[in-house]
Amino acid sequence: MSGIDSGRSQATLSRQRAAWPTPAQRSPNNPPVAVTNEPPAAGRSRSRYLDALRTAAIVRVYLHHALWFGWLTVLFPSMSVMFALAGCLTAASLDRRGSIGTVRTRMRRLLPPLWALAMVATPVMLAHGWLSDTDSPLRWPDLAWWVLPLANPPASSWGLPFALALWYLRAYLWLVLLSPALWWAYRRWPLPTLLAPITAAVLFYSPLVNLPRDKVSDVVLSTATYGTCWMIGFARYTRQLDRLPGWACAVIAAALTCAGLGWAALHGGVAALSDDPLADLLWGTGFALALMRLRPTMTWLARAPRLTRLVNLINTRAVTIYVWHLPALFATGALLQLAGIEPDSAGGLVTTLALGSVLTGAIVLATGWVEDLAAARRPALLPTPGHPSTPRARYSVARYPTPPAAEAQTLTAAPSRTAPLAPVVAATAEHRTEPGSRGDPRPRR
Predict the structure, then answer these.
(1) Is the CB of residue 272 less than 8 Å from the CB of residue 70?
(2) Per-residue buried b or exposed e for 17-50, using 16+ beta carbons within 10 Å of the residue's own CB
């Protein structure tokens, strides 16, 4: 059994122990588990595992856009994982701050890095002839989406790299705005609420529904596609996902991923999985489910200080890296062409990865402090462990205490009144780019 983060209140622990069976109720035929139906108590600890997953997702997105290797999207479906992580963090915020506080905090963390990009991108696009662009004409009211991305921020045909990846911010924002209602529904009807988005997405991507290509359809598609991943994050936070047996979770995840691979094999090939929205949906959801069920302690990370600092840096600058990496990579491609280097050659790919990393890093140094301000931290060019600009929540190995060893060997599960996702068996274990949106121009993942 992996370690779990400590931090649950004594009152919550007492209520859990009150539900444990007496010795007379215990029998060798009952599995040894302890359960609680309540969300974890609010705490300030961070999960090394979740931070490591977010780092891997950001790195994978960058590598794919730098190298354009399609198999990277199959190896690690970053967007599904990122939405699952965001759902888990949003559930924690809802439990701690309530609806209004959560929406305000999430928007405050999301929007300033976008505004920093807009302050550079819009003047540059205007200076480069956006007013006379016939392929992607400027509509002045649409500039409002750079302030509040309820729809995809617009861009000129020349400046498209500035906006290609911003669909994620739009999808994230809508899920944040919907989260108070989703949280309310999830706590009453967990399984139907979790399954509703993916069911709707499968329907939308089927021949039975023909959505128009417009801004509303973009929102509907992205919300349905990633809504279940978001809800899987809810299930992780409330520990209802822990009540799903490991073997059952593995079977469900395998069924989803195999269905995605099978669909892709019949419609263009597995190598083009991310180009098929339905295959990408099934593959990514199964992948996210499996990763969210795991709770490794990641204690080895504490013994690798350089890697720990890198994980901390990427997590502290995640939004800045995401919104700026594509402009930096496209600028790198332009420089290679000026130097007479073929970007698709082996040397060009290596140079793109190296020079693009330098440019992205320089931009993060120049603008990353905006994320510090957004998170109410002291601004810093390069946050380091112990600096006030780093996340105030400290890492911990165990967030929730396990029962005493003698009791843990004989505990039995009690039925839940809150409609768990599956039979209660264990709760003591620890704390594309967009699927083919029919109206979203963007590079392939």
Answers:
(1) yes
(2) eeebeeeeebeeeeebbbbbbebbbebebbbbbb
Measured CA to CA in angstroms, residue 224 lies from 42, 183, 282 at distances of 29, 16, 12
- Domain residues of the chain, as ranges? 1-43+397-431, 77-296
Helix 78-127 × helix 318-338 angle, to 10°: 60
pTM recorded for the entire structure:
0.78
The set of residues, in sequence order, having a beta carbon less than 8 Å from that of 52 and lying 6+ positions away, is 298, 301, 311
How many CA atoms, within 13 angstroms, populate the side-chain half-sphere of residue 208?
7
pLDDT in tens, 99-119: 999 999 999 999 999 999 999
Tokens 């794919």, residue located? 64
Place of tokens 């290609």: 164
> For the chain, what is the HEC assignment?
CCCCCCCCCHHHHHHHHHCCCCHHHCCCCCCCCCCCCCCCCCCCCECHHHHHHHHHHHHHHHHHHHHCCCHHHHHCCHHHHHHHHHHHHHHHHHHHHHHHHHHHHHHHHHHHHHHHHHHHHHHHHHHCCHHHCCCCCCCHHHHHHHCCCCCCCCCCCCCHHHCCCCHHHHHHHHHHHHHHHHHHHHHHCHHHHHHHHHHHHHHHCCCCCCCCCCHHHHHHHHHHHHHHHHHHHHHHHHCCHHHCCHHHHHHHHHHHHHHHHHHHHHCCCHHHHHHCHHHHHHHHHHHHHHHHHCCCCCHHHHCCHHHHHHHHHHHHCHHHHHHHHHHHHHHHHHHHHHCCCCCCCHHHHHHHHHHHHHHHHHHHHHHCHHHHHHCCCCCCCCCCCCCCCCCCCCECCCCCCCCCHHHHCCCCCCCCCCCCCCCCCCCCCCCCCCCCCCCCCCCCC
Token pair in block for residue 70: 């399609």
Report residue 271 as tokens.
């190598």
Q: How far apart are CA 31 and CA 363, in angstroms?
A: 54
pLDDT tens track for 373-429: 998 888 888 876 555 444 444 333 333 333 333 333 332 333 333 333 333 223 333
Is 116:367 a contact under the CB 8 Å cutoff? yes
